[in-house]
Write a structure and sequence with these properties.
Elements lengths: L4 H19 L6 H8 L3 H7 L3 H25 L3 H17 L2 H4 L1 H7 L1 H27 L11 H20 L6 H12 L5 H14 L2
């Protein structure tokens, strides 16, 4: 039975994602992708005319899933909900890790994707800032005259780079460790009410 165009495109994108993650974006050719997807280069070109078009399609997948997770956190920005969604965001980042491990190669291939990645970084920091501001209003974090912009940026760096350093160091996935680092960063700024909540969350991830 012939595959539909949609399922064929999905097969191509899955093959490309696996190759990009394992070999690096710059090292993979259209021929490599065609072989991994089990088709001829001509058939591949029918669905995706270039590696850039595959890159853009993969980024659209990543961004759609990520937007859903982050929007869910912002709709209910409690510590408990953020704790739950953080693992899904980390797993998504790791699944598309070549975007982050090969950022410069990706930027050289597609300026549109590079600009989108930069815009996403700012949006992600803004989501984290919104969560922290909500925590202040809910009485879980101390109010500070200087606000929490810097801490939101630091939290983003921890969450953004944690899966990358695991891949670079060839360590096993450990999302609990990433969440522990996030909560330990917040703990000094917490109120007594907030500390109680954070300590309970820390216990859930402590071996």
């Amino acid at each position: 039975m012939l595959l539909s165009k949609t399922s064929t495109k999905e097969r191509i994108l899955e093959a490309a994602l696996d190759l990009f993650n394992r070999q690096g974006f710059a090292q993979v050719s259209m021929k490599d992708i065609a072989e991994a997807a089990g088709m001829s280069p001509g058939n591949l070109a029918y669905h995706f005319k270039s590696k850039e078009s595959i890159l853009q399609a993969l980024y659209e997948q990543l961004e759609e899933e990520r937007r859903q997770h982050l929007s869910a956190v912002l709709q209910l920005p409690t510590f408990e909900h953020a704790h739950e969604k953080t693992q899904a965001i980390l797993e998504l980042t790791y699944r598309f890790r070549f975007f982050y491990l090969n950022t410069l190669d990706v930027a050289h291939e597609s300026e549109d994707v590079a600009n989108a990645l930069r815009a996403h970084i700012e949006a992600h920091i803004a989501y984290l800032k919104g969560m922290l501001d909500y925590a202040v209003g809910a009485g879980n974090l101390q109010a500070r005259p200087e606000g929490y912009d810097s801490l939101a940026h630091t939290l983003w760096m921890v969450l953004f780079f944690f899966p990358m350093q695991q891949a670079i160091r060839r360590q096993a996935d450990n999302w609990q460790e990433a969440r522990l680092r996030m909560w330990h960063l917040l703990l000094p700024y917490a109120t007594e009410k907030g500390k109680s909540k954070i300590e309970k969350l820390i216990q859930t991830d402590t071996p």
